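Quick one: structure tokens for this chain, please?
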Amino acid sequence: MCTLFYQPYQEKTMSLYSISTEEKAKLKQLVDEGCSVLQEMEDLKGGLKDTVKAIAEELDIKPAVLNKAISIAHKAKLSEAKQDFEDVETVLEAVGRTL
């Protein structure tokens, strides 16, 4: 359930107390559609989590590894992730904490 709370601000660009019926309808539609989109996103994330867990168990891979791979692929930032890892590796080598 999506609930909209309105707290009046000191400075307003428009008054929510004097909006037209048409403007109220637009706001209602926006809030209703926004709530629907957020619910769909929540449902899709839950489905992805379940799928990742099932594949991870099947392939004996940690779900976190699969989630990281998905995130990197989605953002198309493999080279950045490699550089980040190399930086961490350099720090660990510098402090003698490598195996």
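The chain has one domain: 21-94.
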